[in-house]
Amino acid sequence: MQPLILIADDEKTIRSFLKVSLETQDYKCIEADCGASALMLAASHNPDILVLDLGLPDMDGIDVIKKLRALSQLPIIVVSARGHDREKVEALDAGADDYLTKPFSVSELLARIRVTLRHQSGSRLSESSGGTLLALGDLSIDEDKRRVWLGGEELHLTPNEYRVLALLFKHQGKVLTHRFIIENIWGAFASDDTQSLRVTLGNLRRKLKEDPAQPRYIITEIGVGYRLADE
Amino acid sequence: MRTTRPVRVTPVSTHTSHRKLLTVGINALKLLLVMLLSTALSMLLRALGASEINIVMLYLLGILLFSYLARSYFFSLAASLFGVLFYNFFFTEPLYTFQVNSPDYPVTFFIMFLVGSFTSMLTIRIKKETLLAEEREARIKALYQIERLLLGVKNSADLAELAAGALAEQFSSSVNIQFFDPTGILRSSALKGSDVFYDDRERLVCREAYLSGNPCGRGTKLFSEAKALYMPISSHSGVLGVIGIAPDAAAAITGAQLEFLETISAQVAIVLERELLYQKQEETQVQIQHERLRADMLRAISHDLRTPLTGIMGSASTLLDNFESISDAVKKDFLKNICDETGWLSDLVENILNMTRFDEGRVVLKIEQEAAEELIAGAIGHVKKRAQRHTIQAEIPSEIILLEVDGVLVTQVLVNLLDNALHYTPEGSLIIVSLKRSDGAVIFEVRDNGPGIPAETLPHLFDRVKPRPLASDGGRHGFGLGLLLCKSIVEAHGGAISIRNIEPHGTSVTVRIPEKEGPTYAASHLDS
Q1: Between chains, do B346 and A160 touch, taking CB under 8 Å as contact?
Q2: What is the Cα Rg of chain A in Å?
């Protein structure tokens, strides 16, 4: 079955080129030009993904996300103008699954859609099967035994380094905000403690032998958070 | 310019009666001493056979001398009287009585008394006038000196400090001077001596003087129980500040002192006003400068925009007009051009946006703790797609360097520097981004092994408007705006940016951002 994608953007040019490129990739598309119609179409057509522009004319994009989240777990990819990083983080914290910054290339959007779709089906899987052996390139992680290998050699991670890595694996390909990671690892009361996060990630990168100019595993999204590379 | 106001100052007399009594006692003692001395000398003269007239003269001399010392009309009258009585008692027949034999003597006594009184009174008056004149001269001298000093001050803080110092010396008092801006907010202040001015009560009195424009506090009718006298500094545009004076002793502030204070206050007002005018003028100057820069920037931006737009327009219209006749390879090439140019445009627009935000002073740095290496990775990630034909390497130390910056803006700096390196080096060049710490600062360096920057352009890289697009531009877009933005961002973080050519060839851009004091972490465990 072809996945159904709802595009909510008030710019007709953007909607039309998105529709064309998505349809060439075997997705079905429906369009909304404002927040109200996006909410309506989401309810009536039950799409697989919503691509949501945060700058819709009739309502605040964050409100659209909150309203949708109250109803469903529909994956949302937000699109926002560059420089509006706070808005982006807010959207992610409100429940959006991923984000793109305008102007973006279609190939970027397609990659995000693929990740989101796979993640959606994957999360259903992993809930039933529990911990598994996951791998990304030379890196593999055994969630049952809490062990990590890089190129066949076992890595000795501290408990927090392991937990951050496992969290990234669990949401592979998806950007995780600083706050999300901190709340999951250090608890909700530590949400200002970005220092521990930075240092943990720095140490983790060194243990993973990341090339800073060409990271293979952990990708930094400045001002937003971190993402585990997709493939 | 100076507005005179009636100064309501009532003489303070309560604390002075004690002192007066003391003066009277001392004068009485002096009187007694002078009389005894005159009598003793006269007896000596008599023994030597001098005539009586010389003895009268001697007494008159004593009276004169005493009046000069005592400076009191009452006591000089008393001295004249006692002189007559002493003369009568010791030197007229019959000796050692107050009676006289000759009828001439009463006349002598009377004349002696009159001469003594008149001369001593004249002496006193001359003496007092001399003193007054001296005092006035000293005051005028002091005033002149203060005025000269005041005219030379550079800013209001100096002015307050100087005026307070001068007044404190002149009045031997504690002095507090405060200047307010037109909205009533304290602009600068100076304190000499003790801080009696800072309790709530005194603040209230000071406030009252500021709001009413009348002197308040000690020695005036308003708040006379206050510890200090508050004199407003008034100009025709309103009250500019307040001078507070709290004499250390219980002494009253005299009328002359008040006059002095008023003169100084008026002088201070003039200087203050002059400074305000100067400031206003400077602001206007800055505004004009600003407008000019803005116009220049618009010109530069238009130039930078037009170049890629021409490319896009040309490629697109060629495609549209000759769609059937050109080969697929050429079409693809054109489309790739369009893509590249729009990518460049998009970055340019981002820079312009940030630049205008900086220019209008609207930039609020979103300072957060960032790991420096992440900023570098983010920047390299951003330009990687355009850098297929270059090699970019990162040199990161083993320690994790955290710094408090606006991560997005600093990444923008690195992106711009990398972009420049990509544009101005031939394909296949190596670009290295390195990171290190050096005396309290984090240093980012972007260096390449390209041809370097021509010596004549190097000093002008950060000029807002270049006379012409860079010589080495090679048809590519100017990069003035990007570097300018880098400079603005780095300076907003209290840092510095510098560019130099390196040996054997290449360019190195160094960005230095000061570290806030705080711990750094070796690459080790932080879990607990």
Answers
A1: no
A2: 18
